[in-house]
Amino acid sequence: MRRKRVLPAPAVPLALALALAFFGAIQSPPRFAQAASPARIVQARINPEETPEFCHRQYEQCIEDCDKDPFNKTRYDLEACYSSCWSTYSGCGT
User: In the chain, what are the domain boundaries?
Assistant: First the structure.
C-alpha cells in the first residue's frame, strides 16, 4: 500500500504574512514602474560621434583589415570577415 505524500508546512503561516503586510513590515513593489519614452530610448542609443562619415570610414578600414589579415586564406574566411564589417556598419549610428 502506498503512503500519501505529505507536503511540508510553509515557514511563515499565511495569517502572519498578511498581518505583517497589513502593518507595513513587508512592503510591496510599486504598482506601475516608470517606463522610458520611445524618443528617450532612441536618444540614449545614438552615439553623437557615429556620423555617416565616421561609419563609412570605419567600414572601409575594416575591409582593408580583412584584406591584410594573413588568417583570411580562403574565400570563406574573407567573406566572413566582410560580413562582420557589414554587420558593424549596419548598426553604426543607430
Answer: 38-94
